[in-house]
Design brief:
By secondary structure, the chain is mostly helical. The chain has 9 helices and 2 strands.
């Protein structure tokens, strides 16, 4: 069983991951500090593991997925994976910190920091392919949905200037233009009863609306 290559880190993020817990304050970097990287890495790792187990064949039931997931997210697995790449030997820090590297908490922190660093610099697919091969070197990595791959386009969320109701082909805006408001007011002063009939043509996602005035005028 071949060990999957370790995704490489470069520049400042590499230094920060291995200069262990150098600072808890925010730094002038896109990721802030290794505590934030570890939080990110923990969530990404759980998602990758859960996705792999969910699509595994033969299909696992929910209970088996939970048991297997908890095992893979545990400190024993973290220590095993760190040992494969001898990552603990690369850590630099104060003696009191280095002496704690074998503790479950610190093993998880180092692994999560590295996973978070890989994700933030290289994306989800690299993390997914790496972790899937660590779990099962003989199987292919889980195929990711298209909108999670690097370079995929995600539909933008409409801003405040784009009403969602209008985008979904809903009825036309309720507030008439100023000219129509003045027309309605004029009809009211002349005691003439009018009604507006709205209709649309075209596709439901992009209709063209028209309004007809019904009454005496």
């Amino acid at each position: 069983m071949a060990t999957p290559p370790l995704p490489a880190l470069q520049d400042q993020i590499l230094i920060d991951v291995f200069c262990y817990r150098l600072s808890s304050g925010l730094t002038d970097t896109p990721y802030g500090n290794t505590i934030r990287l570890a939080d990110l890495g923990r969530s990404v790792l759980e998602m990758v593991i859960m996705t792999k187990l969910f699509y595994e064949k033969p299909m696992l039931d929910a209970r088996d997925i939970t048991i297997r997931k908890d095992d893979l997210l545990g400190a024993d697995t973290a220590s095993k994976w760190l040992g494969i790449y001898e990552l603990k030997k690369k850590v630099r820090g104060a003696p009191d910190v280095l002496s704690k590297l074998d503790s479950p908490e610190e093993s998880l922190f180092l692994l999560h920091s590295y996973v978070g660093a890989v994700y933030s610099t290289q994306g989800l697919k690299v993390v997914n392919d790496w972790i899937c091969k660590l779990i099962d070197p003989d199987s292919e990595p889980t195929s990711l949905p298209e909108n999670t791959r690097a370079g995929s386009q995600v539909a933008p969320v409409p801003g405040p200037s784009t009403p969602v109701r209008a985008r979904l082909g809903s009825p036309p805006p309720q507030s008439p233009p100023a000219a129509l408001a003045q027309f309605n007011q004029l009809m009211a002063t002349q005691f003439k009863k009018i009604e507006w009939s709205a209709a649309s043509v075209g596709p439901s996602h992009q209709p063209t609306w028209s309004a007809s005035c019904i009454g005496e005028y």
